[in-house]
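Q: My collaborator sent me two sequences in one message, no labels, and asked for predicted structures for both. Can we handle them in order? The first one she listed is below.
A: Yes, handling them in the order given. First sequence, followed by its structure tokens:
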Amino acid sequence: MGRRRITAVASAAVLSGGFTLTGFGVVTMGPLASVAQAGPTCSPGEATTPECAPPEGMPACNAFGQCGQIWCPASGMTPVAGWDLSRCHTFYFDPNAPDTKPVMISGNPPGPPPPPPPPCIPLVNCLPGL
């Protein structure tokens, strides 16, 4: 029983010392770690800010139901070749590509814009107060 207690105390001391050294390493590496960090990347939520806004314009849909989407560096998707990888971009998927190998095309899908929505007719196609 005495040997177990000594082993437990010794293990706790080694672990405690290891955590302490790790803490000192983090404190002394703090300024160096900030130098090595990459700069902030744009995300879809920041796509409306000037430094992240897509040069192709914000995503839009056409009359055929094809819609543009937004790609940002923080999205994790593979970008289209030639894009500035520090800002967001607008793209759409090629409708003629097979589903197993989608092809991203830069910009919004071509075609006429969708028609405007119908006018609001209370209690028929819209509810008052909504």
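Q: And the one she listed second?
A: Here it is, processed independently of the first:
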Amino acid sequence: MSPRWEPNPEVRRGRSVVHSLHANLVFTTRYRREVFTDETLRRCEDIMIEVCDSFGATLVEFNGEHDHVHLLVHYPPKVALSTLVNSLKGVSARLLRKEFPVHIRRHLWGGHFWSSSYFAASCGGAPLSIIKEYIENQKRPG
């Protein structure tokens, strides 16, 4: 008897696609100001979860320090990563400024919360060296 097949929760299925896309994101506060406390980090995580849900994505992991946050996001291929990032940063900045106005204003002024740049890296699956070797070893037609 063959072993029972167990579905991998990291692999999702759509109508015409099977995918497992993960991104490691890092956002820093404007001028690397030390804005985050435990309370504001918890609220930031809640906001990020809600934004991811609205895109059909999942916030797999979240953590941060006083001046930046790290996210691991599992997202569908129909979502442009830059669009997701813009929404994550925009919604969180607006809500955190609204909910913690005195604290945020003490550290940041003007209209900006996050730095305009961010770090994004794809992650998951086999190491790049293995994928490169696999592709190199494929037979060419002919």
